[in-house]
Amino acid sequence: RPVFDALLRILISMTESEFGFLDEVMRDPDGTPYKVSLALSNIAWDSASSHLNEQLRGRQLEFRDLSTLAGLPATDQRPLIANDAPRDPRSKGLPAGHPPIRCFMGLPVRSRGEVVGVAGVANRQGGYDEEMAKFLEPFLSACAGIIEAIRLRARERAAAGALRASELFMQNVLESIPVPIFCKDREGRYLRINRAFESFLGKPEGEVAGKTVFEIWPADAARADHEKDQALLA
Fold first, then answer.
1. 3-state DSSP call for residue 210?
2. Helix (H, G, I), strand (E, B) or coil at 115
3. 3-state helix/strand/coil string of 126-139
């Protein structure tokens, strides 16, 4: 997503780092956290690192082991600073082709008290400190807001898709019933019908739904039908 690539570039510039990443923290149904990559620096500097970079950026990355330098901010929910990364006991090494990491800072990205992401930067000249982590809090809050906005949009799309699927299922059920079926509101407007009902009325497909009984039936029949409905609803 371009927005996260842009945020990562800003983060790297603000911290004067060589490279970094932005990850989203997700949870399994049982609550177990894991990370999904949102943005990743181009780490290519020779043929091996170029090949690794193409592999990393060419697929959706999930990180299940959060007991690493890059993962612990998600579980400990606090900044992690390792200014001697190769010798840090929390380091678990690097994949083949990855450029060396001399120092590292990982920061939890919080929204309403929940960690929704992790930002990581590496190889700043002189290392990192708590003051820099504090300085970055407003920027991380902005990242959290964007993650939450995208999550909300995804939930809305999922809900809309589920509603469309439900509507299609209901209509298929109605169409499978060979006898006339309809549903009306209090004003006598036909909200849902099946083809058997259209055939019963002798109306073309799509001509009845959305119209009232007064637009479909003769005046006397429509008035009697509407009065009967009102009596049932009283």
1. coil
2. strand
3. CCCCHHHHHHCHHH
User: Rounded distance, CA 27 to CA 37, Å?
Assistant: 14
Evaluate the CA torsion angle 191, 177, 160, 110 in order and state its sign. positive
Q: Using only C-alpha atoms, what is the Rg of the chain?
A: 29
Predicted confidence (pLDDT) per residue in 8-61, tens digit: 999 999 999 999 999 999 999 999 999 999 998 875 544 544 544 455 454 568
- CA–CA dist 91, 40 (Å, integer): 19
Beta bridge partners of 80: 106
Taking 50 as the threshold, does the pLDDT of residue 180 lie above it?
yes
Between vectors from CA 157 to CA 139 and to CA 138, what angle results, nearest 5°?
A: 5
CA distance 119 to 178: 59
The tokens of 151 are what?
């999550």
48-79 per-position pLDDT tens digit: 445 444 554 545 688 999 999 999 999 999 99
The sheet carrying 104-111 orders its strands as 62-63, 33-40, 19-27, 114-122, 104-111, 80-82
Q: Give CA–CA dist 165/143, Å, rounded.
A: 33
